[in-house]
Design a protein that fits this description.
- This protein is an alpha+beta fold.
- Helix content is 39%, strand content 18%.
- The strands form 5 sheets. It has a 7-stranded mixed β-sheet, with helices on both faces. A 6-stranded mixed β-sheet has the order 12-13-11-14-10-15, with helices on both faces.
- It is globular and about 75 Å long.
């Protein structure tokens, strides 16, 4: 018998900046309908007709916690495998279909406790997606063969190298969890698993895992967006009903971590440039009553100027520029972690002493009701933020249903946070932190073990060796032979499209103030939020070569108080509104970005005006910002991705071009910048004559323009001249450059050349041309060849950047170190072949994706702000997307060929490799582009 649950309203009262007895805000609501099929599949529907799109999410209640020791990484491996092939979609069928239908791209993620598969598509493709999701559960596992498994193992290994092995502090969580949880605890290992376990996995192992966990009675399907529930229910029943129920799955028991005695561990990190101390305590699982008080505790201790840890470690002892504490909860257990990344050369014993002082300060002072309510005040804004996309809503509904059986558990979740008292916060501190055993890790730069906590033992971390030809060989082209799973109808027939949604371009209003400030806005009342960006042209381009990083410091200092408010007072004023205000600098702009409840727009804008027009320019805050920036620059020195980005920009633009420079500056330039330099930069360059206000949200044009009128008198225009830097032409011949980072587990590749400005006639046609090359995700040749075909990389992409100035065409990837040359050769071959091999089918796929994906073009407030940014920056009309549709519809293979020959010629490119010179430099000669140019001195061999 099918069970049906309907909950049309989820409501909760939220505190604002007043106490609950003083004020209740507007009730919050989420509509949904839940049904359960006879086979146990939970299906949740949510209607949102604001855009013609639907988010489809399948969440399976299996993560790394359902694995066994020695067979780790299986849950995450399946997240990969399920995108490759199924019986009825065929090899690569889901990715091909996603491209045709204009989807956001099939995606997924794995945690300790669940795996999800998700995508947003135009509403006319809903039946196609339901058909495809059913194939995952009922018609997939027969397609997994030994070659398929062998290839995907390499992809997963590359993901581990990219996200863990090749990053500063990447092994830290591994060390903590290995020691925080007993050996037989399912949180003892990482979600991604070990390389050894992955390599040892057999085909039968993975099939057994799938058959146990990937069953309807362990899964939730959520359809969220512009749907007809009656019709959607019929489709769900058609495609899912005959998938058999699996064996009954018993829930795993809650089981906290166990630390019998405090343990201190250290590790010399190849990629670290400053020491980092992490302390971890066992705590409680998600939704446990104490988890909410722990969340408040960790926010209070480290968030904001007045946080006890920041007062002691940053302001008083000056040991760091940032402290982070958080409560990491999962289904079975939780852990509370504190991270302090100290300044260069600081001994972590000093940091630990400071931590003890900060805890003592908290014990003495506790948390005030004002601070407690300030932390709670952001709850309403965060709730509405989670509703800003159908995908966000779908994930929330799926998660609550998976863990609690109730998609509407958000009510209890929010109420539990709002119920936290000051006494609760002190109680959980005493219960889980004070005088409790913990795990402490000291990750220090190589050859600097003396910075680690005294008495620390060396942590056990398995480092992969770089060996040419060490990987298992496979032929991914071998087709799987299997008997298809029986069905009551022919599932190989792809469903037809529904009614084609019309493209709805948002209405845009424009206005100008007398002082030159330009206003662009879109009214949108989907949720009671307003997002706005006040963007001031210039940014890094207004710096001089001896003051690199000045724009960044100026922007950052605007957040540090006003003439009438200290940093603490400003932060509290923002938080009490449940708002966020951030100031940042880029190459071409300084931007003040804010998000607020619509009812608090005027108060939030008043704070922005105060920050903009009455900066505090505090000398102590300035000194702290300089130290923090220099610390970040030191960390970038050993980050392969940061090195690649900075080095590539210099090669593209040339050392005398400001666009080649790091936005943070250099350690030397930042050291030499004075507070007077910041004041001069502000007084000279922050002007409404080069500014624009972009507003999206639940607020009228009249309200916006009225709220800005006082700036005519309070913010006077001045002449600002922004220097122009000419981007060089593409090179006339190719050159290979190499930057040595010893013992790198991956090589970071950046290949490309100067190309086009966003305003050039060829820019969008070239972007269309690039879709099949490297811009289309899994539809692209680069991904299909280097990831899907060879298993060399976790991801590879290509694209054109540009603004009013000419940008670059770039191919970027992180590849397994021992196939650096082979990866470059594969890219070279793809580029050489592309103009002549671009097919009619490629053109059809390109057109289908780029036209149909426009249904998703303006769904979120972020997308609408991007639309306003394009209009204001380039002078485009609000319907520029329709002009782009015409470009796509009129594109021919001959145009694609001409564009490819002109802009993606491998013989007129820069070929940059950032990796291990000892094993890879000499091999790069074989690419055929001459002797590689080594950009830095060969560094010392890493201490083993």
């Amino acid at each position: 018998m099918k069970k049906i649950f309907i909950a049309l309203l989820v409501t909760v009262g939220l505190v604002g900046c007043k106490t609950p007895s003083e004020e209740k805000t507007k009730e919050l609501s989420v509509n949904y309908k839940k049904i359960e099929l006879d086979n146990g599949l939970d299906v949740v529907f949510h209607i949102d007709k604001s855009d013609p799109v639907v988010a489809v999410e399948l969440m399976v209640h299996v993560g790394s916690a359902r694995e066994i020791e020695g067979r780790t990484g299986f849950a995450h491996l399946f997240e990969h495998l399920l995108f490759l092939e199924s019986e009825n979609l065929g090899k690569g069928g889901l990715d091909k279909m996603s491209a045709r239908i204009g989807g956001s791209g099939a995606n997924g993620s794995t945690s300790r406790d669940r795996t999800n598969y998700l995508q947003t598509v135009p509403k006319d493709a809903l039946e196609k997606m339901i058909w495809a999701e059913a194939d995952k559960l009922g018609y997939f596992i027969n397609t997994v063969t030994d070659p398929v498994l062998a290839k995907e193992k390499q992809v997963v290994k590359n993901e581990k190298r990219q996200s863990i092995d090749n990053r500063p502090y990447g092994h830290n969580q591994y060390v903590i969890d290995k020691n925080l949880y007993p050996k037989d605890h399912p949180y003892n290992w990482q979600v991604i698993g070990s390389l050894e376990d992955l390599q040892n996995a057999t085909l039968e192992d993975v099939k057994t895992f799938f058959r146990k966990w990937y069953v309807p009675n362990n899964s939730t399907l959520v359809l969220s967006g512009d749907i007809d529930i009656e019709q959607a229910t019929k489709w769900v029943k058609k495609y899912f009903d005959e998938i058999p129920r699996g064996e009954e799955i018993e829930p795993l028991a809650k089981r906290p971590g166990k630390v019998a005695e405090t343990k201190l561990l250290y590790y010399e990190d190849n990629f670290a440039r400053v020491p980092q101390l992490t302390m971890a305590w066992p705590s409680v699982a998600q939704y446990h009553k104490d988890s909410y008080a722990l969340e408040v505790l960790t926010q209070y201790l480290t968030n904001g100027k007045n946080a006890p840890f920041n007062q002691v470690l940053i302001d008083d002892l000056k040991l760091t520029s940032n402290t982070t504490m958080y409560n990491y909860t999962s289904e079975l257990a939780g852990q509370t972690q504190l991270i302090v990344r100290a300044f260069n050369g600081v001994k972590l014993d000093e940091v630990k002493e400071g931590i003890e002082k900060a805890f003592a300060k908290f014990e003495e002072e506790g948390i005030s009701e004002k601070d407690l309510n300030r932390i709670k005040a952001g709850q309403e804004t965060r709730f509405y933020g989670s509703l800003s996309s159908v995908l966000g809503k779908g994930t929330g509904l799926a998660s609550y249903n998976t863990y609690t059986g109730n998609p509407g558990f958000v009510t209890q979740d929010i109420n539990s946070t709002l119920a936290v008292t000051a006494e609760d916060v002190m109680d959980v501190y005493n219960k889980y932190i004070k005088e409790q055993n913990f795990i402490a890790t000291s990750f220090v730069p190589r050859n600097q073990a003396d910075l680690a906590l005294s008495g620390s033992d060396l942590a056990d971390v398995v480092e992969e060796k770089i060996v040419i030809g060490a990987e298992e060989k496979f032929d991914p082209k071998i087709a799987a032979n299997y008997e298809k799973t029986p069905s009551s109808f022919d599932r190989s027939i792809e469903p037809d499209y529904g009614e084609t949604p019309s493209l709805a371009v948002p209405d845009v209003y424009k206005a100008n103030l007398e002082n030159g400030l330009k206003i662009y806005g879109i009214e949108n009342d989907e949720v009671p939020l307003v997002r706005f960006n006040l963007s001031i042209k210039g940014g890094q381009l207004l710096e001089s070569m001896d003051k690199l990083g000045l724009a960044n410091l100026t922007a950052s200092l605007l957040e540090k108080g006003t003439a009438n408010k200290t940093v603490t007072e400003l932060e509290e004023a923002i938080q009490e509104l449940g708002a966020s205000i951030n100031v940042y600098s880029g190459t071409e702009n300084i931007t003040i970005s804010a998000t607020t409840l619509a009812k608090n727009y005027d108060k939030t804008l008043a704070l922005v005006k105060e920050m903009l027009l009455e900066p505090r320019f505090d000398s102590n805050e300035f000194d702290l910002l300089k130290k923090a920036t220099i610390a970040r620059l030191r960390q970038q020195e050993a980050s392969p991705n940061a090195v690649a980005r900075n080095t590539y920009n210099e090669l593209i633009y040339g050392k005398d071009n400001m666009r080649a420079k790091n936005n943070l500056g250099s350690t030397a330039s930042v050291s030499n910048i004075t507070l007077e330099d910041v004041k001069n930069f502000y007084n000279t360059n922050i002007s409404p004559s080069v500014a624009k206000m972009l507003v999206v949200g639940d607020i009228s044009e009249a309200q916006v323009t009225s709220s800005l009128q006082d700036l005519n008198d309070n913010w006077l225009a001045k002449e600002v001249t922004i220097p122009e830097y000419k981007t060089p032409d593409a090179p006339t011949e190719p050159t290979v450059y190499f930057y040595d980072i010893p013992n790198a587990k991956q090589s970071v590749l950046q290949f490309g050349a100067p190309a086009l400005a966003a305003t050039d006639e060829d820019f969008y046609p070239a972007t269309v041309m690039n879709y099949i090359l490297g811009g289309g995700g899994f539809a692209s040749r680069l991904t299909q060849e280097l990831r899907e075909g060879k298993g060399y990389t976790y991801g590879i992409r290509s694209g054109f950047s540009g603004s009013n100035a000419k940008g670059a065409f770039t191919i970027s990837s992180g590849v397994r170190s021992n196939v650096t040359l082979e990866s470059a050769q594969a890219v070279k071959q793809i580029l050489e072949d592309y103009p002549e091999t671009f097919s009619d089918k490629d053109l059809e796929t390109t057109k289908s994706f780029l036209i149909k994906s426009n249904a998703r073009a303006f769904e979120t407030s972020r997308a609408k702000l991007n639309m306003l940014s394009n209009m204001s920056e380039y002078g485009w009309e609000s319907d520029y997307v329709k002009d782009r549709e015409a470009v796509v519809n009129n594109m021919t293979k001959e145009q694609i060929k001409a564009l490819a020959n002109k802009y993606v010629n491998p013989n007129k490119m820069i070929w940059l490799v950032v990796g291990d010179a000892e094993t890879q430099l000499d091999r790069m000669k074989e690419l055929g582009y001459g002797e590689p140019v080594l950009l830095n001195k060969r560094q010392e061999k890493i201490k083993k």
